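Morning!

As promised:
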Amino acid sequence: MIMIFGIPGPLLFGQLLLGLINGAFYAMLSLGLAVIFGMLNIINFAHGALFMMGAFVAWILLDALGIGYFPSLILAPLIVGAFGVVLERTIISRLYKLDHLYGLLLTFGLSLVIEGLFRNAYGSSGLPYRIPDILQGATNLGFMYMPNYRGWVVLAALVVCFSTWAIIEKTSLGATLRAATENAPLVQAFGVNVPRVVTLTYGAGVALAAFAGVLAAPIYSVNPNMGSNFINTVFAVVVIGGMGSILGSIVTGFGLGVIEGLTKVFYPQASATVVFLVMIIVLLARPRGLFGKAA
Amino acid sequence: MFGFSRPQWIAFLVMVALIVVSPFVLYPVFLMRVLCAALFACAFNLMLGYVGLLSFGHAAFFGMGSYVTAWTMKFWHLDAFFAMALGGLTGAALGLVLGYLAIRRSGIYFAMITLALAQMVYFFCLEAPFTGGEDGIQQVPRGHLFGFIDLSNDMTMYWVVAAVFLGGFLMIHRIIHSPFGQVLKGIRENEPRATSLGYRTDDYKLIAFVLSCGLSGLAGGTKALVFGIATLTDVHYSTSGEVVLTTLLGGLGTVFGPAMGALIVMSMENYLAQAGAWVTVIQGGIFMLCVLAFRRGVIGEIANWRKLTL
């Protein structure tokens, strides 16, 4: 058996993989938060609840309609994204003229409502979601056995994160989006329907959270608290990375997941708090965040 | 003497009269719960209402105050006075450390940082041996105040809690209406201007934060003494959310709003207890309603209607 720093290789790599998976969720969620914040200037506290909703929609699709994992991976984000569009149009859009804090408070209330409703309907014990047959089993990588599903999650998250980055940074749609973030009235004067762009941005950010939720469903049991367990850590990730850069969110998310995984190997007691410790160090050394723009 | 205006004097006397009369009508333990929540909300309001910084992590200070008071009462058999004071000091000390980190950012980031730091405190309490983990610290004796006042009687305890609340309330009111409080409001309205006038705004914010956290710790300690228990719920972020709701519902930046909010929120929890998980849904719904249509809160609406400052 390979030993690295006195730690058995498979244990180290196993925790690293777990860290990468957590990091994949941090990256997808903080990316969505950053995209929404850029356009709407609100922190979407309901992001965790919508992540959880994505997982539940996938579970319900399978349970009630027999729709499997892969179609759900497309359908659930569409459904939750549509829900997000309705939310933005009916409720959130009323707050744009107010202080940013009201957006945070409103979406916090929203997350209480969504989580409470799911808790009433499904209890809080958690529902199992089966890994699809094609991703069952594990692959021998030589230095460790990698469960196929976990590899798939990391891969899918990477693809989605970098597609989002490419859309925002490399396409004309993304250019419009970035321009509207900088100066909405001017973009509107050029004939772009900015309110619609804002609505669709919220929908897309929410769909991203739901996509992460479907990916998470077979790993963590589907339960109403799965979002709030994640979201507090994701906020720390956002503070560490700063919300200025898309690529920054992705790198920070994955990086912190890995740090968390390594901490589990070397000093397990601190694994729950290490992300927050990193946040404290970043606040002391570089308050605007690793990739944040100067205020 | 405390900078009350005439309408505020009237409102204050009404509040004191209610505090004096209500234990003869309502269950004192419920009223003590309201008073602890009211002190907590008043302390929170000092930050959000007068400095304009939304802390989403006030449960950390409330909960640590609660743990320290419970621990020192149960294992050191301290006098109730010192146990509660230690609860407050713990809140203030923790506030100094976390506040020093958090005030480096403002606005939305301040909220996220305080939330994350409080979550760290929560995980610490979950793991640390002295908190009793999931069980919490139970069967905390109420003990004696100043060595001779036996607090095991609910009515005696009630008067002590009422005194603590009124003391904290008047202290906050005094702070707000002092020159220091005027500077805080100046910072809230226009921070660059306050800086250009030569004020070290970070110092002012930090002092306000420490005061707010100290009083939150005192509220937590008092609560632990009343109910004889300190648990993870006290440090959980739902408690942070609840105090935001309390303040918002009662009236942000008003003197009497947080107390009114505490009365409403605690009554709701008390009388809706059988509704179980629906309580969260209702709370969330009220939260959204407040933000969308009722941003002044109950006291704020009354004040606006009567053209008063309450």
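The first strand of chain A starts at residue 3 and ends at 4.

Hope this helps with the figure draft.
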